[in-house]
Amino acid sequence: MTSLDKPTGTDRDGPSDQDGPDANGLPDAHGRSDANGASDAHGPSGSHALTEAALFEAFGGVRGLVETTVPGLVFILIFTINKDLHVAAVAALVLSGLLGVARLVRRDTLKHAFSGVFGVLVGVVFAMVTGNAKDFYLPGMLYGLGLALAYLVSAAVGYPLLGLLLGPVFKENLSWRTRNPGRKRAYVKASYAWGFIFLGKSAILFPLYWWADPTRFGWVTVALKIPPLLLAVYLTWIFLAKAPPPINVIAEMEAEEEAEERAKAAASTPTDGAPRHRRD
Question: Which InterPro entries does the UniProt record give (predicted)?
Fold first, then answer.
């Protein structure tokens, strides 16, 4: 069993009083720092800050929201003004491309910009092929419905999707499955929250897709882009902030490697300080 998912002596929801910093100043399994005054991730402020930083990284923060929302807003704005599907589609695609180029110039991560460009491109293709402006939003709707089902099913079977996504961000990988049951419960709750929120959004949009005109449907779609996402992120933050802190398996593996190196060095050095000579 690897250090990614190996069981400890006892499963527990919270930290043990016996856990402490490594004697050489390395973080312990729960991410606490050494005895030189560094902050403790077990404290409320440390745990909350760690959760906020991880969620910000995973979901892209303000810039990620802009890159996935503004192109759709530009599309429906232009289409509302001149009813020209081609102009609206090209404008949204160009804007999405410029946001991706801005990421390249700043040497930032491209995952959120790429997802935005890809989503806009697929939407443009759908709308161009059918000639229906509502189809610009159809791929995103189908993706949201599939994601909702994935969150709900994964949570029901005990492999919450949110834990699989955020585990590497928190450097805990899959340790929450067997070594941190309280954290697993938090991931299950958060995955259910994402699933039901996205499912509720789909329950609103799909009927409107059939009944509403393209302009009204587009504005409703844009209006429902950010609020459900913010609600899901906020609930995730609440669940994880109240959960036990993540077990830093990366720090564990590094500590094990250093311990092995020290053991090898100690074995190759004689106790009297004299060098060992190999006999022929």
Answer: UCP010219
